[in-house]
């Protein structure tokens, strides 16, 4: 995100770009004003900013998301360990039931 804002350093009157259409399809386009950009601030809202302001916005957003990831990482690791323990317990139970079923089948024969 942040690297795409460096377009003002190119000193071009127009800049070719790909515009996102329908979240998956990109079409070619030209950026006529490289000093001002339109950025997606979320939930369908767009804000016009200068290239420098857009860089600052993306830097703050990256910092915020990095901090949020650092906050939730310990909880995710704990949940992963719990999931592994449950999977191991289920595997043991399945093995016990399979062995019990095989023992009963040989006892009937």
Walkthrough of the structure:
By secondary structure, this protein is of the alpha+beta class. The chain is 53% helix and 25% strand. It is built from one helix and four strands. The chain has one helix at 51-108; strands spanning 15-21, 25-31, 36-42, 45-50. The strands form two sheets. It has a two-stranded antiparallel ribbon with strand order 1-2. Strands 3-4 form a two-stranded antiparallel ribbon. Strand 1 and strand 2 (25-31) form a beta hairpin. The mean pLDDT is 81.
Q: Major beta sheet, specifics?
A: 2 strands, antiparallel
Strand order in space, largest sheet: 1-2
Strand content: 15-25%
Mean pLDDT: 81
The tally of helices reads 1
- Portion in helices: 40-55%
Q: What letter string, H or E per element, gives the SSE order? A: EEEEH
Distance between the termini: 69 Å
Structural class, from helix and strand content? alpha+beta
Number of strands: 4
- Residue stretches low in confidence (pLDDT < 50, at least 5 long) are none
Rg from Cα: 27 Å
Q: What is the number of domains? A: 1
Shape: elongated
Summarize this structure as a short list of keywords or feature phrases.
two-stranded antiparallel sheet, 1 helix, elongated, about 110 residues, alpha+beta, 4 strands
Quick take:
This protein is of the alpha+beta class and 109 residues long. It has one helix and four strands.
């Amino acid at each position: 995100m942040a690297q795409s804002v460096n377009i003002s350093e190119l000193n071009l009157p127009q800049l070719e770009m790909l515009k996102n259409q329908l979240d998956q399809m990109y079409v070619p386009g030209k950026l006529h004003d490289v000093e001002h950009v339109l950025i997606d601030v979320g939930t369908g809202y767009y804000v016009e900013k200068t290239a420098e302001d857009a860089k600052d916005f993306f830097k703050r957003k990256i910092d915020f998301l990095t901090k949020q990831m650092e906050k939730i990482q310990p909880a995710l690791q704990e949940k992963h360990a719990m999931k592994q323990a449950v999977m191991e317990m289920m595997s043991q139970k399945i093995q016990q039931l399979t062995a019990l079923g095989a023992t009963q089948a040989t006892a009937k024969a």
